């Protein structure tokens, strides 16, 4: 059953269940195998009394004979019929040999069945793709269906002549045939060459062209072609037909989308990694993926969610690949993410806070030393993958964050019952922000136990004072409050002053409601539902968080592009007038919400 719990606990919407419900659901699992081509669900048949989760393989969703969707590992089908009591509207067929987990109606066995917020599939697929392949919608089309026409310019053309050819064709590229070798020159090549001052309009275009141009066969799936683009660092691919002759061009802007980029570019490489070196090579794609996602104009919080899933996958794979050696113990373990990464709000330069919990085995020696040795190697490998450990010590090697389940539960509950003990408020806040990426039930049992502990008004009051001590850096009149000395003199910290106060309020809401699921924005909206926040306060905090997060993300993206050191510190006079004004208004609005909560929180308690 442990394998079922760990697998389901990593998949939406099952990752919203607490440990007890997750185990209750896992006890109902039946395993069923379907050969490629097998019909699993008939459209219009009798209402289903069971639904499925794909464990391995892939199934097709069919609408009147047409494949409209592909579902891979972790994705669910049949639930709509089970929950509604209606005939299944679409057919499901195994597209390859597939193993599924089969479940009865989950509502009778779960304490909180409302947490299972299933998505829907159909001819308009809009949900995020974080499964193994991610090849859906345009990504399952062949490159020949997505390509643009070939534009040629003579091999001896000058830069000016090649630019004219591209402009007249209304495209961003032209191909050159140099004795059978096909090269490509793009608008980006022109910009870079002129910026460097190495060429002029009379220079040969061949000196800035790429020979040979990267290419893919016409039947290559768009998703696979996109992976080739990012791994090769190119934005154009030549599509070849018979005799490997060019028949079209595939551009990154035509095929890239938030739904396919993350799974194709990084997740597949992570899944395929067999060594830490392979994994580090896959993780090297992270900075470019942040940039590409941001540049598409996707919602910044959507970008955060996608990249959070990538980081999760890297950590899980690191745990699997890091050698245990002489530190092997029989205890099951759970790795926890803490802080902003746990809330699915990472930034490109975020460090990764981690914790470790292990099961109790009576009659055995404490595995703490061995597990901390192993955790140290995992964190070393994590940094090889470009993910820095917490500089402030919130790491799985620290005894504060590496405990047996019994010890962890006892400590977490004591922080609630005795909030005056040293660091009780800080540490209970960190547990409220924890999220397991392995050993799901074991990891969740700690936060479940803490939140199940009666939270006195003394504790909630102390936690709110701790929460609102993180104030936005805005003065009583008009100016920002900036550092008055040190290396950051005259600057303000956008993360500490803008994101932390709002995230802290979200965490306070999580503790008050006993529900620590989701991101800061999810928690704030849950606070409105529980009447801890008004609708106006919720909207104020949500908009402010999104704005400040987007501001920091934009600055970090520019740092990646310019190969400079990113910082969350900024001098107000470096911001344009509109940004400065909006930032000040956001800070002031957040401070006003903090002030109202400080005086009204008791009356707002559920």
TrEMBL record:
<dbReference type="Pfam" id="PF00027">
    <property type="entry name" value="cNMP_binding"/>
</dbReference>
<dbReference type="InterPro" id="IPR014710">
    <property type="entry name" value="RmlC-like_jellyroll"/>
</dbReference>
<dbReference type="Pfam" id="PF00571">
    <property type="entry name" value="CBS"/>
</dbReference>
<dbReference type="InterPro" id="IPR000644">
    <property type="entry name" value="CBS_dom"/>
</dbReference>
<dbReference type="InterPro" id="IPR051257">
    <property type="entry name" value="Diverse_CBS-Domain"/>
</dbReference>
<feature type="domain" description="Cyclic nucleotide-binding">
    <location>
        <begin position="13"/>
        <end position="103"/>
    </location>
</feature>
<dbReference type="Pfam" id="PF03445">
    <property type="entry name" value="DUF294"/>
</dbReference>
<dbReference type="InterPro" id="IPR046342">
    <property type="entry name" value="CBS_dom_sf"/>
</dbReference>
<feature type="domain" description="CBS">
    <location>
        <begin position="209"/>
        <end position="266"/>
    </location>
</feature>
<protein>
    <submittedName>
        <fullName>DUF294 nucleotidyltransferase-like domain-containing protein</fullName>
    </submittedName>
</protein>
<dbReference type="InterPro" id="IPR000595">
    <property type="entry name" value="cNMP-bd_dom"/>
</dbReference>
<dbReference type="InterPro" id="IPR005105">
    <property type="entry name" value="GlnD_Uridyltrans_N"/>
</dbReference>
<dbReference type="GO" id="GO:0008773">
    <property type="term" value="F:[protein-PII] uridylyltransferase activity"/>
</dbReference>
<keyword id="KW-0129">CBS domain</keyword>
<dbReference type="InterPro" id="IPR018490">
    <property type="entry name" value="cNMP-bd_dom_sf"/>
</dbReference>
<dbReference type="Pfam" id="PF10335">
    <property type="entry name" value="DUF294_C"/>
</dbReference>
<feature type="domain" description="CBS">
    <location>
        <begin position="146"/>
        <end position="201"/>
    </location>
</feature>
<dbReference type="InterPro" id="IPR018821">
    <property type="entry name" value="DUF294_put_nucleoTrafse_sb-bd"/>
</dbReference>
């Amino acid at each position: 059953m442990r394998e079922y719990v760990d697998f389901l606990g990593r998949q939406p919407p099952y990752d919203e269940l607490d440990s007890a419900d997750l185990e209750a659901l896992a006890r109902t699992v039946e395993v069923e195998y379907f050969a490629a081509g097998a019909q699993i669900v008939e459209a219009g048949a009798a209402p289903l009394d069971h639904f499925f989760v794909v464990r391995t393989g892939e199934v097709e969703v069919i609408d009147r004979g047409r494949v409209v969707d592909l579902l891979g590992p972790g994705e669910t089908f049949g639930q709509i019929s089970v929950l509604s009591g209606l005939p299944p509207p679409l057919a499901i067929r195994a597209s390859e040999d597939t193993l599924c987990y089969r479940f009865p109606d989950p509502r009778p066995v779960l304490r909180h069945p409302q947490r299972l917020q299933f998505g829907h599939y159909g001819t308009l697929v809009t949900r995020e793709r974080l499964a193994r392949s991610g090849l859906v919608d345009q990504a399952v089309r062949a490159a020949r269906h997505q390509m643009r026409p070939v534009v040629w310019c003579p091999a001896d053309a000058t830069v000016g002549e090649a630019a004219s050819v591209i402009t007249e064709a209304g495209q961003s590229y032209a191909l050159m045939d140099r004795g059978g070798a096909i090269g490509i020159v793009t608008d980006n090549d022109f910009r870079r060459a002129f910026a460097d001052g190495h060429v002029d309009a009379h220079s040969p275009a061949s000196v800035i062209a790429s020979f040979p141009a990267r290419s893919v066969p016409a039947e290559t799936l768009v998703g696979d072609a996109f992976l080739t683009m990012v791994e090769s660092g190119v934005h154009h691919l030549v599509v070849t037909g018979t005799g490997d002759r060019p028949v079209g061009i595939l551009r990154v802007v035509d095929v890239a989308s938030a739904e396919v980029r993350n799974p194709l570019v990084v997740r597949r490489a992570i899944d395929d990694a067999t060594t830490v070196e392979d994994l580090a090579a896959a993780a090297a794609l992270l900075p470019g993926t942040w940039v590409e996602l941001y540049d598409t104009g996707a919602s910044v919080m959507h970008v955060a969610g996608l990249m959070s899933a990538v980081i999760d996958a890297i950590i899980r794979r690191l745990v699997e690949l890091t050698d245990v050696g002489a530190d092997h113990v029989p205890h099951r373990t759970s790795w926890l993410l803490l802080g902003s990464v746990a809330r699915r709000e990472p930034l490109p330069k975020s460090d990764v806070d981690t914790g470790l919990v292990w099961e109790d085995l009576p009659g055995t020696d404490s595995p703490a030393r061995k597990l901390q040795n192993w955790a140290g190697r995992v964190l070393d490998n994590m940094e090889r993958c470009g993910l820095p450990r917490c500089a402030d010590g919130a790491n799985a090697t620290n005894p504060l964050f590496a405990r047996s389940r019994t010890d962890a539960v006892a400590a977490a509950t004591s922080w609630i019952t005795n909030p005056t003990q040293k660091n009780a408020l800080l540490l209970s806040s960190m547990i409220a922000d924890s999220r397991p990426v392995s050993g799901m039930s074991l990891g969740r049992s700690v936060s479940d136990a803490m939140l199940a502990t009666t939270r006195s008004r003394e504790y909630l009051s102390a936690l709110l004072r701790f929460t609102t001590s993180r104030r936005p850096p805005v003065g009583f009149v008009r100016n920002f409050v900036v550092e008055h000395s040190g290396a950051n003199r005259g600057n303000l910290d956008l993360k500490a002053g803008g994101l932390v106060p709002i995230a802290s309020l979200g965490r306070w809401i999580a503790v008050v409601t006993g529900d620590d699921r989701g991101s800061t924005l999810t928690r704030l909206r849950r606070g409105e539902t529980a009447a801890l926040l008004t609708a106006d306060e919720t909207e104020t905090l949500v908009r402010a968080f999104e704005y400040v997060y987007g501001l920091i993300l934009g600055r970090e993206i520019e740092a990646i592009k310019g190969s400079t050191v990113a910082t969350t510190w900024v001098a107000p006079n470096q911001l344009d007038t509109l940004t400065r004004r909006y930032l000040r208004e956001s800070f002031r609005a957040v401070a006003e919400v903090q002030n109202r909560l400080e005086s009204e929180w008791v009356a707002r308690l559920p």
